[in-house]
């Protein structure tokens, strides 16, 4: 295997020393472009995330609050106004910027180490880069953000909500449960985010590579990027919604009922049946397809600008 084709190729292994500089710049560009992308995207798609989480928290056998997607929307708007659909947005907004920055920054860093001399990734490389990006974002950004978000949404379901705002809510969680209180469901989140990004980046990079015919310098139109992103998002939803359901339960206010991630999955299977693992699939599908399409379109746009003004 040549040094150019090795999956562990380092930027400094290029034949010309100048090749290492663009690799470093690309990682920084990915972090900045990813952060901006995350903030814009979550403001657009949050209501669907809210509905998905509410449906996943509606346990069979308990007092179900919602008959479906539209029932959840109507009851939320009636009880809390239109902006009730944005309950917990501040949590995701604070977290989406670093989450997206870590995801894309990590992906670009891994890609620079694994691409061949033409700048292309092998199929295995696409999977590994996506997996690495997902694991990185799960540890450094997603788990605490998702835990707090789920607890905020779960709190609203109570007759007397306790959390008055982001910092008040986080303060109460840490005071009552310690710092571990914002790291519930870490294992499930790592599995979810790792598989999520492995699937998404693999599908996205594969479709873009097919469109470009192997030429990494060929520009892919933004609408085409959006269509590819929607396909990648749909693939990830069908691939890991069961993990997402377990993660949500592990991060909810009733998480104390479960010993660990495996116990949570077993209890859901035993008490609610296999169909429970696909609760919230429809709202999640609509959200994720839109989310991934928008994310890649915005990200690619910023990267194009950065590459022009910041070689």
From TrEMBL:
Pfam family for this entry, one: Mito_carr
The keyword Transport is assigned to this record: yes
GO biological process terms on file: mitochondrial citrate transmembrane transport
Chain positions of Solcar repeats: 25-113, 124-210, 220-305
Protein location: Mitochondrion membrane
Membrane-protein topology: Multi-pass membrane protein
Main location: mitochondrion
A molecular function (GO) term: citrate secondary active transmembrane transporter activity
UniProt-listed InterPro entries: MCP_dom_sf, MCP_transmembrane, TXTP-like
SUPFAM superfamilies: Mitochondrial carrier
Keyword set includes Acyltransferase: no
Keyword annotations from UniProtKB, A to Z: Membrane, Mitochondrion, Repeat, Transmembrane, Transmembrane helix, Transport
Protein name: Citrate transport protein
Species of the source: Photinus pyralis (Common eastern firefly)
Source taxonomy: Eukaryota, Metazoa, Ecdysozoa, Arthropoda, Hexapoda
């Amino acid at each position: 295997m040549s040094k150019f084709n090795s999956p562990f190729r380092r930027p400094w292994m290029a034949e010309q020393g100048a090749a290492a500089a663009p690799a470093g710049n690309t990682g920084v560009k990915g972090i900045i472009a990813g952060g901006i992308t995350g903030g814009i995207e979550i403001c657009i798609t949050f209501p669907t995330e809210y509905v998905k989480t509410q449906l996943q928290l509606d346990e069979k056998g308990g007092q179900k609050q919602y008959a479906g997607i539209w029932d959840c929307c109507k009851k939320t708007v009636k009880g809390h106004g239109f902006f009730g659909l944005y309950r917990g947005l501040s949590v995701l907004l604070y977290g989406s910027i670093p989450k997206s920055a870590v995801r894309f920054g990590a992906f670009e860093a891994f890609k620079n180490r694994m691409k061949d001399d033409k700048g292309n990734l092998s199929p295995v490389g696409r999977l590994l880069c996506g997996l690495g990006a997902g694991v990185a974002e799960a540890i450094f950004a997603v788990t605490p953000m998702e835990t707090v978000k789920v607890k905020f949404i779960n709190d609203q379901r109570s007759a007397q909500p306790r959390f008055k705002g982001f910092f008040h809510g986080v303060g109460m969680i840490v005071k009552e449960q310690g710092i571990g209180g914002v790291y519930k469901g870490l294992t499930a989140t790592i599995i979810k985010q790792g598989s999520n990004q492995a699937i998404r980046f693999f599908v996205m990079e594969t479709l873009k590579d097919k469109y470009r015919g192997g030429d990494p310098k060929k520009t892919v139109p933004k609408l085409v990027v959006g269509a590819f992103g929607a396909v990648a998002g749909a693939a990830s939803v069908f691939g890991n919604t069961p993990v997402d359901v377990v993660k949500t339960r592990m991060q909810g206010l009733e998480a104390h009922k479960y010993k660990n991630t495996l116990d949570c999955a077993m209890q859901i299977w035993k008490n609610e049946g296999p169909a429970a693992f696909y609760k919230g699939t429809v709202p999640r599908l609509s959200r994720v397809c839109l989310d991934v399409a928008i994310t890649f379109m915005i990200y690619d746009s910023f990267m194009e600008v950065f590459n022009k003004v910041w070689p």
